[in-house]
Design goal:
The chain is mostly helical. It folds into 2 domains: 2-91, no CATH class; 93-123. It contains 5 helices and no strands. The protein has helices at 2-28, 31-54, 61-75, 78-90, 94-122. The radius of gyration is 17 Å and the shape is globular. The N and C termini lie far apart (42 Å). The mean pLDDT is 90.
């Protein structure tokens, strides 16, 4: 049953991301603002839901998985990255938190550049 909830939540999150991003881009004319807004909203929502879920033991695993893994994971993966980094920092694992932050940004930029380069070479 959780897989169905995750799948439906994933569809909802992906469509929400698309329509919110497009709406912001149409309003501002700037594509980067749409992506930025979605990532910041997703980060806030994941942080909020983690607290809400932690304080509500009556919430079923179906609700928890649908909202976090389904909706928000498809809405933005940036939210998971930021919350994981905060958890590492709060647990005192500062070096892992900094490696996660810096590495994700630097290696992510390199991976994107490499993908663009290879894609241009292949096409």
């Amino acid at each position: 049953m959780n897989l169905i909830g995750i799948a439906l939540g994933g569809a909802f999150g992906a469509l929400s991301r698309y329509f919110l991003d497009r709406g912001i881009v149409n309003w501002t004319g700037e594509p980067i603002i749409g992506t930025f807004a979605v990532n910041m909203i997703g980060s806030f929502l994941l942080g909020f839901l983690i607290v809400m879920i932690g304080n509500r033991t009556e919430w079923s695993s179906l609700i928890k998985d649908t909202l976090t893994i389904g909706v928000l994971a498809s809405f933005t993966t940036f939210s998971t990255f930021t919350v994981a980094s905060i958890h590492l920092w709060q647990s005192g694992d500062y070096s892992k938190a900094l490696y996660n932050l810096g590495g994700s940004i630097i290696i992510g930029l390199f991976a994107a550049w490499l993908g663009l380069t290879v894609g241009n070479q292949v096409s």
